[in-house]
Every structure is written in C-alpha cells, then in structure tokens.
Design goal:
With 202 residues, this protein is an alpha/beta fold. The protein is 29% helix and 25% strand. The protein contains 8 helices and 10 strands. The radius of gyration is 18 Å and the shape is elongated. Bound molecules: S-adenosylmethionine. S-adenosylmethionine binds next to α5, β8 and β10.
C-alpha cells in the first residue's frame, strides 16, 4: 500500500495519530528534504522527492508490495502531491491521510470561519487577480515570485478596501502573523514562506 500522509503545517504535534502510526510502520518514506528531516527516529529507507516525480511514480509502481509512505506538508489534497499521485497510480493502491492544511491553520489563528472561502495558489502561475479579488474571503498559498507584496500591489492597483493577513512559518517557533491594509503590508520589508488571507473590510 502507498500512503500519502499530510504532516500538518509544520510542527510535528499537528500530525494525526493515524499519519504518525503509518509513517513509523513504513518500509520506505518519500518526501521533500525538509519534510523527511522532520521525521526523527525512522529506521527505514528515505527517498528525497523534488522534481523527480515521474521517477518516483515508476518506483512506486515497481514496489507496490512494500509499505511506502509519501509525506507532504499540510494536506496533500490542497496544492500538494495528492493530485499528481491520484492521477498516476491506481486508487486501490493509494491511501490518502489528510493533514491540517496551512490554509486551515491560519483561519484558526485569526478567529475567522472558513465558510465560503475561495482557496487558490500563486505557485508557478500568473493568478487571475480580477477573479480572485472579486471574492469576499480568499486564502492563497504563495511562492517566492508572487507573495504578499505582489498581492498587495494588485489590491492597491484596483483601489480595493481589503484587509490582508500574512501567516509566515505557521506552527513553528518563528511564526509571525501580520494583519493590515495593503499599504501596511507593503511597508514590511520581507516575508518568509507564507499564506495570505484577503478579506473584505467589514
Ligand atoms: C506546495 S504548497 C503546499 C500546501 C500544503 N499542501 C498545505 O495544505 O498547507 C506550499 C505553500 O504552502 C504554504 N505553506 C505551507 N506550510 C506553511 C507554513 N507552515 N507557514 C506558512 N505557509 C505555509 C506556503 O505558501 C508554501 O509556499
């Protein structure tokens, strides 16, 4: 069986009990370098996942008899490896174990419900900001090309009255949550890995 396990936003306490149990009973762990390093005292084989997706799928297909867990940050079904593996491996061999997404985590920290939220990503694409900013409540995962500053410039360019929340390094000791209008967010020099929530001002 191939498990795809969501690790939660980062700090190991947020992983589900089921995810933890499956990880430590696996023969092989596959995941990004940072995620693999977060799993301590694992004595099986570890394989680093980066841009080698096709190679990993071939490995999984050839090793179905092994107990393999692919680990992913947050929830694997939210802008994660879940989509690619679900599209490329027979579902009878796959067991996806949800984790707490960074997008869920940030809402709990700002006491805002997630009802009717529009979830999106700026990863590796030019987002359609007219469409995104037409929503009352948005949450975005970002990358180092389009992050909080670029999003705020798009908001300013349309003269929109939005409140922006930037959640950096969520669940880690250096977590920082910054809330403000576009100009306030733009006055912060630099943001680390972050999710961005955009809310209509009440
Ligand atoms: C490829 S996406 C993976 C999202 C993940 N599947 C989830 O459910 O959280 C990676 C992006 O998620 C966001 N992210 C993931 N973990 C984060 C954390 N602990 N703090 C802030 N942002 C995080 C960042 O925008 C990062 O660039």
């Amino acid at each position: 069986m191939i498990n795809i396990i969501g690790l939660g936003p980062g700090q190991f306490d947020y992983i589900t009990k089921l995810g933890e149990k499956l990880i430590y009973t696996s023969d092989v762990l596959i995941g990004g370098k940072r995620n693999l390093e977060s799993i301590e005292n694992f004595h099986g084989e570890k394989i680093v996942l980066s841009t080698n997706l096709e190679e990993i799928v071939n490995y999984l297909k050839e090793n179905m008899r092994k107990n393999i867990s692919v680990i992913a940050s947050g929830d694997p079904s939210i802008y994660g490896i879940g989509k690619y593996l679900s599209n490329n491996i027979d579902h009878e061999h796959l067991n996806i174990v949800s984790g707490i997404s960074s997008l869920q985590y940030i809402f709990s920290k700002i006491y805002v419900d997630m009802n009717d939220v529009y979830l999106t990503s700026s990863h590796g694409k030019i987002p359609d900001f007219d469409y995104i900013l037409s929503h009352k409540k948005v949450c975005m995962v970002t990358d180092n090309k389009i992050g909080p500053h670029e999003i705020c410039k798009e908001i300013q360019g349309r003269n929109l009255d939005k409140v922006i929340v930037v959640g950096e390094n969520l669940s880690y000791a250096n977590e920082r949550i910054t809330i403000g209008k576009a100009e306030e967010i733009l006055s912060v020099e630099k943001f680390d890995m972050s999710v961005v929530v955009i809310l209509d001002e009440k």
